[in-house]
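Consider the tokenized backbone below.
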């Protein structure tokens, strides 16, 4: 009888302990209310700038865009049909491109250095796009992954290792939930997603495999053609936040099955998302250097690429409004990053090397865009004692007064302690107040070699109210 009582007490205590675990350890439940309550790890907001990489079998035909297979077979678009007739023998299938995806020129350490020199703080690699080809040797996709066919190597693992061993960047994984022509997915689709063979046997095991094998800092999901309950998104995220090896550092986006701009660690809402105003929830602007494709394409023309000035302006506006910029490049099938992408990334790095204090770890200021000089955006650095404001000019000053260039800003409220400097130029600038709110700054007389940078210019304002 006593033994039975002891066992009963033990069971009671164990049950009580299990009940209290969520309270003691702050465990997350598989509900959006619980998942969305998790604070965003601070490193992500401080990073501001990352590199996106779209690379896969679509890099072999490298024609038009990364949706080649769907546009050719699914949508039957004529230009894709004509391209295949002109360049490939009858009976050639999309799967026949995979052996040509060799990645023989891929040097992950060279890539890592390029991204670091660009001033990026994180990298997100496509581990699997909508075509379903996996850039790692997954156990859940036989002969349609980089370990079994094509490169015969672990592309995800190689880049993750290079980034972590040679830089201070963080590594993230892009993952498409669905696959255009996976029979399990298409059968679930026919059953209106009330069957769940594909997420149970493919997508969820692959996501867990990626997390366990590579411990990514970002899990960037996409292609959520199906409701979140079909993908078991909240169940996966609860595991990711509670029990995975990256539970304390990992950041996720908002594409979990009809949840864009509503649920997730940060919002992407849509590609090329630029709200133009302060957004309270952390967000990201994912955009391409090539205006018409995320993947590499051989038919691109010079005018199809964003120039360096427009990219830096995108970064400035994005950060001013509280977002991060994720800038995409598309490597070739053999693993090269073309000079046009290298040039743009190099210019980003040169600008950030001088002006990074206005970008990294910055916070939105009370005003994002100046009310007088419209092509001026604000950021700030805040500590316990003071706030430093940065006015970032997208246009070089052209207004003159008494044969001097001047910059008139309507938002800053000056004080006797106000100091103004041009970042990258050693001397204090002269200024005078404009009424109760505003400042008129005399631009320094600079020759071409003295101008600290190109594309955008940063005024540092200390001691403004």
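A designed sequence for it:
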């Amino acid at each position: 009888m006593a033994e039975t009582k002891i066992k009963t007490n033990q069971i009671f205590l164990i049950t009580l302990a299990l009940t209290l675990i969520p309270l003691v350890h702050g465990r997350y439940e598989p509900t959006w209310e619980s998942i969305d309550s998790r604070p965003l790890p601070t490193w992500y907001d401080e990073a501001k700038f990352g590199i996106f990489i779209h690379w896969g079998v679509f890099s072999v035909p490298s024609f038009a865009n990364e949706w080649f297979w769907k546009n050719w077979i699914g949508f039957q678009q004529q230009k894709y049909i004509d391209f295949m007739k002109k360049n490939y023998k009858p009976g050639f299938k999309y799967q026949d491109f995979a052996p040509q995806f060799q990645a023989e020129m891929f040097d992950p350490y060279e890539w890592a250095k390029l991204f670091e020199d660009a001033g990026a703080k994180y990298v997100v690699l496509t581990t699997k796009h909508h075509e379903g080809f996996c850039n790692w040797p997954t156990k859940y996709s036989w002969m349609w992954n980089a370990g079994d066919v094509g490169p015969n190597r672990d592309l995800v693992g190689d880049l993750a290792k290079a980034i972590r061993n040679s830089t201070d960047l963080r590594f993230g994984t892009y993952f498409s939930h669905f696959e255009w022509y996976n029979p399990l997915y298409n059968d679930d689709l026919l059953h209106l997603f009330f069957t769940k063979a594909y997420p149970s046997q493919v997508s969820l095991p692959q996501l867990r495999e990626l997390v366990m094998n590579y411990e990514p800092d970002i899990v960037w999901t996409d292609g959520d053609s199906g409701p979140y309950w079909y993908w078991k998104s909240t169940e996966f995220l609860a595991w990711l936040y509670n029990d995975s090896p990256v539970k304390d550092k990992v950041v996720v986006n908002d594409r979990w099955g009809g949840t864009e701009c509503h649920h997730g660690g940060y919002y992407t809402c849509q590609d090329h998302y630029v709200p133009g105003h302060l957004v309270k929830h952390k967000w990201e602007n994912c955009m391409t250097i090539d205006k018409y494709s995320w993947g590499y394409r051989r038919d691109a023309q010079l005018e199809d690429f964003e120039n360096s000035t427009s990219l830096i302006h995108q970064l400035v506006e994005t950060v001013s409004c509280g977002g991060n910029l994720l800038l995409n490049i598309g490597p070739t099938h053999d693993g090269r990053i073309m000079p046009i992408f290298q040039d743009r990334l190099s210019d980003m790095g040169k600008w950030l090397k001088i002006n990074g204090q206005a970008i990294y770890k910055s916070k939105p200021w009370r005003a994002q865009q100046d009310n007088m000089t419209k092509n001026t955006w604000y950021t700030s650095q805040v500590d316990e004692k003071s706030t430093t404001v940065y006015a970032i000019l997208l246009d070089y000053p052209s207004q003159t007064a008494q044969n001097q260039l001047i910059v008139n800003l309507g938002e800053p409220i000056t004080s006797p302690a106000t100091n103004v400097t041009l970042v990258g130029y050693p001397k204090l600038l002269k200024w005078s107040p404009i009424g109760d709110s505003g400042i008129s700054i005399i631009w320094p007389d600079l020759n071409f070699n003295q101008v600290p940078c190109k594309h955008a210019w940063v005024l540092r304002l200390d001691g403004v109210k």
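The chain has three domains: 1-29, 31-358, 376-462.
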